[in-house]
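Section 5: illustrative case.
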């Protein structure tokens, strides 16, 4: 077990002194830490690093968690046969997530880490999706949108699906199994 630093501020200041040795990025981080450590600034680390979202924008952590959730959902989709429609696949993934959320998740969510038995199995992706999503299961329509990303189709509305797919196919010069709504 790691010992807790007796003087964390002193240790951070010691790191600040050495960071410029890392070049431009080290000098930037040193400036961020100095801004954070300034007792008169009142800056959080996010403020000092320029990570606060602008008005109406989401926090970088929210976007990162959603990306992790979406990656886990895309990984779940790999367990379904390739001929399964995107809609059907979304329904099945939603069903799996709902079932897991109402059963094993109740125990798993309080564990310090994912159970080793899940590694390499669909449960690893179920676990990752719920951890990143704060225990919430996205709706079927959101899962369908995530699966569309895997197919490379970004759909604005159902009426635009054919036009979007055709434009994408023209750009890449070929056919794609996404043309029939399957992934």
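Designed sequence:
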């Amino acid at each position: 077990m790691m010992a807790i630093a007796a003087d964390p501020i002193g240790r951070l200041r010691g790191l600040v002194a050495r960071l410029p040795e890392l070049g431009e990025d080290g000098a930037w981080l040193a400036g961020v830490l100095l801004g954070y450590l300034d007792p008169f600034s009142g800056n959080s680390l996010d403020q000092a690093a320029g990570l606060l979202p602008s008005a109406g924008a989401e926090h970088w952590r929210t976007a990162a968690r959603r990306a992790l959730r979406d990656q886990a959902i895309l990984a779940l989709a790999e367990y379904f046969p390739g001929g399964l429609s995107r809609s059907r696949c979304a329904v099945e993934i939603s069903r799996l997530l709902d079932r897991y959320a109402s059963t094993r998740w109740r125990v798993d969510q309080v564990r310090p880490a994912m159970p080793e038995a899940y590694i390499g199995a669909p449960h690893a992706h179920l676990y990752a999706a719920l951890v990143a999503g704060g225990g919430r299961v996205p709706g079927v329509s959101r899962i369908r949108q995530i699966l569309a990303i895997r197919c490379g189709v970004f759909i604005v509305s159902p009426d635009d699906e054919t036009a979007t797919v055709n434009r994408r196919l023209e750009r890449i010069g070929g056919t794609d199994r996404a043309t029939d709504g399957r992934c």
